[in-house]
Backbone:
């Protein structure tokens, strides 16, 4: 009986989403099912190419720099031209970039290839965020974004697991081949089944709340403070994809297949839990409160390594905590960003939102690798707890400035 009710609730959490949002989610699923290179990039550089940890950290920072440029350009192109064509060309060119990067071995050329790959790939993000406003029904914005995240993470649960198996059994070059092929396949599906759609005039709903800001996103001081704390949270969270795999490999002795399975656990949890969670909490709990709680959970996921003994238990508990924190933080933070934007400046807001994670991509591996190399992993874990504590406090202090006015104050 309880299983039937739980299953029924899970199905109802998907109700009312538009056909175009489902198709956009399918494109994301195909694309992310091949997401193999980035989760294993630090392992590939240190184990296969012979780079040192600081060198690997610098290359990952090049990924972040390319990401900043890519999301800024993607936001500008989205506002000037169309979210549709930005996504299409980003997917196609990213596929080609993976095939190119597979051929590069030297440190400087490889760093340049990673920069190019990131710049092209990350232009997709602001266009993708903005397209949700056009394809989704206004009352379902947060759930539509969660469906996209579900598809991404379901694909991500397949990608690293398959990638770890391929790298362990056949070699790292297969990661680049499959990742490039799935990007091109996603572009073809996108082109065949989705068409540009103008955002219709919509009443003030979840999408365009009474706090919608009409000015430039880069002059919205409240949003800039919000993005500072999003970035600090991102710096901590990105360790999961840069430092943590190396830590598991070096300190816990896990192989690539085991690392891929742990990363897949993150995607599977999100696939099965996030949509019902958002469906239950949306409209019942302040978004800023959820974002704050998420930052705290992400911090606790790193504290585990200093407080819990046992390789398997510590690793699984850490993945569980960072995943819960991600589910609390990311969908509602994105919804806050969408809610402050309007049709004329949505690309700017989504670019600035994506840029926060791009800056985190730059700083996260440098901070993580340098601190781990110089002071050890335990010091790094405490530092990351401190960063998320600052974020949690900052989000909480901003909650009244970000929340829509109450009905009495309208």
Residues:
């Amino acid at each position: 009986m309880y299983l039937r009710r739980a299953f029924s609730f899970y199905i109802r959490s998907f109700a009312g989403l538009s056909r175009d949002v489902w198709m956009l989610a399918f494109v994301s699923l195909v694309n992310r099912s091949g997401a193999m290179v980035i989760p294993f990039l630090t392992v590939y550089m240190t184990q296969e190419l012979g780079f040192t940890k600081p060198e690997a950290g610098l290359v990952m920072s090049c990924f972040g720099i390319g990401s900043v440029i890519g999301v800024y350009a993607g936001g500008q192109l989205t506002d000037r031209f169309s979210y549709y064509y930005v996504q299409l060309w980003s997917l196609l060119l990213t596929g080609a970039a993976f095939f190119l990067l597979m051929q590069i071995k030297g440190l400087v050329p490889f760093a340049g290839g990673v920069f190019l790959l990131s710049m092209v790939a990350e232009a997709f993000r602001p266009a993708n965020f903005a397209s949700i406003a056009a394809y989704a029904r206004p009352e379902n914005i947060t759930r539509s974004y969660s469906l996209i995240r579900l598809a991404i993470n379901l694909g991500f649960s397949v990608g690293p697991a398959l990638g770890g198996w391929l790298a362990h059994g056949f070699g790292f070059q297969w990661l680049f081949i499959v990742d490039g092929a799935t990007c091109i396949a996603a572009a073809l599906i996108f082109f065949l089944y989705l068409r540009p759609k103008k955002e219709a005039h919509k009443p003030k709903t979840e999408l365009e709340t009474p706090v919608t800001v009409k000015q430039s996103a880069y002059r919205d001081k409240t949003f800039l403070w919000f993005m500072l704390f999003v970035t600090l949270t991102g710096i901590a969270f990105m360790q999961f994809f840069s430092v943590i795999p190396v830590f598991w490999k070096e300190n816990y002795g896990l192989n690539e297949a085991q690392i891929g399975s742990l990363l897949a656990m993150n995607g599977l949890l999100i696939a099965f839990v996030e949509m019902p969670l958002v469906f239950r909490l949306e409209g019942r709990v302040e978004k800023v409160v959820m974002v704050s709680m998420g930052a705290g959970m992400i911090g606790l996921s790193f504290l585990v390594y200093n407080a819990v003994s046992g390789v398997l238990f510590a690793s699984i508990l850490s993945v569980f905590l960072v995943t819960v924190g991600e589910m609390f933080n990311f969908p509602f933070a994105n919804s806050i960003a969408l809610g402050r934007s309007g049709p004329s400046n949505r690309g700017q807001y989504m670019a600035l939102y994506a840029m926060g994670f791009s800056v985190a991509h730059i700083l996260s591996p440098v901070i993580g690798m340098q601190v781990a190399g110089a002071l050890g992993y335990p010091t790094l874990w405490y530092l990351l707890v401190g960063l998320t504590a600052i974020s949690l406090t900052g989000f909480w202090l901003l909650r009244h400035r970000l929340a829509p006015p109450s009905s009495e104050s309208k």
